[in-house]
Amino acid sequence: MKSVNIGVDVGGMSIKAGVVDSKGNILFRNTRKTNQKEGQLAFLKLIKEQLIELINIAKENDLKVTGVGFGIPGVVNNKLGTIDYACNLGFEYVPLKEYLKDLGVEIYLSNDANVACLAEQKFGAAKGKSDVILLTLGTGVGGGVVIDNKLFEGIEGKGAELGHHVIVVDGRDCSCGRKGCFEVYASASALIYLTKKIMYEHKESLMWEYANNSLDNVNGLTSFECAKKGDKAANIVVDTYIKYLGEGILNFCNIFRPNVVVIGGGISNQKEYLLNKVIKYCEDRHYGYRNSPKVDIVIATLGNDAGIIGAAHLLPYKDE
User: Fold this and answer.
1) Which parts form a coiled-coil structure per UniProt (predicted)?
2) What is 9-44 written as a DSSP string?
3) b vs e for 291-316, b when ≥16 Cβ sit within 10 Å of the residue's Cβ?
């Protein structure tokens, strides 16, 4: 009987899980909607039910599940297998590994950006590269790091918080409690904040028409789509955003000197338009240090499957 792992991508709205083989193929999958108002016990029961269903499907197909990996949107303890804090779920100190111990499989938890990085390094945009940085540009900025083909997580899995290095001393407040974090300037939320600010200062901007004359309609597309049409105010937004994103990437180039930086999350849907600007910004600054190796900057390719695939590969495959 061939051994496989299950990867679980836990989100604020849903839990996506899949049976994944050693080559990164999702063989079977299921999804459950979450309701954090029902509390932690309901959350745990939902996950166990979901896993039992997949374990049985695998067994029916002559496959044996030997490990389950989780990508969690928050802070975990990878030694104890607990979710220590997940703001999107509203939970603290959830004993996930302990609750699932009777399934008889190995359990491992990591941050959701970590598992996405692992997936892109093994099977996606950074396949074949030994040293990789992944940035997910969404509501916040998630980060993952692979060094010498191994996922770097730090003590208890609480490292690699790339969104929380300070790039503006005494800057805007960050949800982590510090000021001026990279996340506050390079996330989709930051882009929307900046777009609204520049729109308020430039009533003539095309961005007003794009947003139907309401700041409430501003989203991550507003500035980019209007900048493509030549709108000056929109280009101020985009250029400022690229500056902050680029400076963060240059910091990571200097700290890690990776082969590649992978950009994921909603803003990465701008693809070449975003990529070309970021690459030029970094090239103009010698990738952080003169006469240093070039760092490739690419867009993530695995999309919503990265969480499941990466989580499954947190654990070794018994057949290998």
Assistant:
1) none
2) EE-SSEEEEEEE-TTS-EEEEEEEE--GGG-HHHHH
3) eeeebbbbbbbbeebbbbbbbbbbbe
Cβ neighbour number for residue 247 with a 10 Å cutoff = 18
User: What residue has token string 């597309």?
Assistant: 221
pLDDT digit string (tens) for the chain, length 320 residues: 899 999 999 998 899 999 999 999 999 999 999 877 788 999 999 999 999 999 999 999 999 999 999 999 999 999 999 999 988 788 899 999 999 999 999 999 999 999 999 999 999 999 999 999 999 999 999 999 999 999 999 999 999 999 999 999 999 999 889 999 999 999 999 999 999 999 999 999 999 999 999 999 999 999 999 999 999 999 999 999 999 999 999 999 999 999 999 999 999 999 999 999 999 999 999 998 888 899 999 999 999 999 999 999 999 998 65
Evaluate whether 122 touches 69 at the Cβ level (below 8 Å). no
| DSSP bridge partners of 260 | 132, 296
Select from 302, 310, 252 the least CA-distant residue to 282: 252
Q: Are 223 and 234 in contact (CB under 8 A)?
A: yes
DSSP state of 70: E
Closest CA to 258 of 182, 120, 145: 145
Contact 18, 312 (CB under 8 A): yes
Give this prediction's pTM.
Answer: 0.95
Q: In what order do the strands lie in the sheet with 150-152?
A: 150-152, 141-147, 132-137, 260-264, 296-299
The SS3 assignment for 6 reads strand
Burial degree of 62 (CB within 10 A; 0-12, 13-18, 19+): exposed
Of all helices (H) and strands (E), which one includes residue 236? Answer: helix 232-256
Sorted by sequence, the CB contacts under 8 Å of residue 141 that are 6+ apart come out as 135, 162, 163, 182, 183, 186, 187, 248, 265
Q: Residue 147 has which token pair?
A: 């060094």
